[in-house]
Amino acid sequence: MKGLDKRINESLDFLIENEQLLGRELKTLFHSFKEEKIAVGFSFGKLCFLHYEAFVDNVHEDIYKVAAAVELLILSFDIIDDLQDKDSDYSWCKIPEFSLNVALAMLVMASKTIEDTSFEHKRSAIRLLEEYALKSINGQQLDLLNNCRDEDSYVQMITQKSGSLTAMSCLIGEVLAKGEVSREVQEYGKYIGIIQQIKNDIQSLKSWGPKNDLLNKRYSLPIIYLLSQKNDISKSVVNYYNDNIVTVLDNNSIENELKNGGAIRYAITIKNVYKFKALKDLEQVAINELGKDYLQKLMK
């Protein structure tokens, strides 16, 4: 997989350097923002590649450009998300007005890159990119409104926001290879995004810093569970969220309640529900062992 990360990174560098309509200042920011994301790997681009490779006899070199295009769209969304949430240490948050231009350019380049390939079904891939990107944007809007305060509405929101992007990455690879997409790939692709978002939500509550959802009065599955309990700790958190009285949060007590009162276990249980659904759909797809192993790791 490290070799695949390298190929996607090389394709990103190629796309940035060979875009004649961008000036040197924008290209420099492009490169620096991309470098900050290398450490976490290009998981969305890899999903695209693996679902192309699974259904072809010979891999066309242009697929690395498409995988890089997917990563351009994802990075643009990451930048915009961080600028909206104002809780990130990435360099793009220090220069928001310039970073927005980079994000906009990435969005345009994502579809332009796919259009410039020689794939027979590239128009179908672009339609998938546009459709699922819009779904994710709508999910991001719902997240910013912070009104998803029960399990059903919250899962629907993260399905749009996060599930759309993982499903999109899988389906673009599949459609380029086959000219059509399958229900199973769509479903487990979506579930992978839900699983990853729930894992991020749990991780957010492990440190009391600027990214902590509870301190920021955000809603997530563990917090929704905590707020539903009828005890002194949950009441203090409700008061904190409602701003109706001055509330001093007892961090140690809240951490203990999250860990031992069922909130984290509840979120893990919901995550595992989607893991088992994803694994069931994955069994129906003829993907090679390397790809299957990678997908299973994302579902843990």
UniProtKB/TrEMBL annotation:
Q: Which cofactor does it need?
A: Mg(2+)
Keyword terms of this UniProt record: Magnesium, Metal-binding, Transferase
Q: Which GO terms describe its biological process?
A: isoprenoid biosynthetic process
Q: Which Gene3D superfamilies match?
A: Farnesyl Diphosphate Synthase
The residues forming a coiled coil are none
InterPro entries in the cross-refs = ComQ, Isoprenoid_synthase_dom_sf, Polyprenyl_synt
Gene Ontology terms, MF aspect: metal ion binding; prenyltransferase activity
Q: Which family does it belong to?
A: Belongs to the FPP/GGPP synthase family.
Q: What is the protein name stated in its UniProt record?
A: Transcriptional regulator
What is the phylogenetic placement of the source species in the record? Bacteria, Bacillati, Bacillota, Bacilli, Bacillales
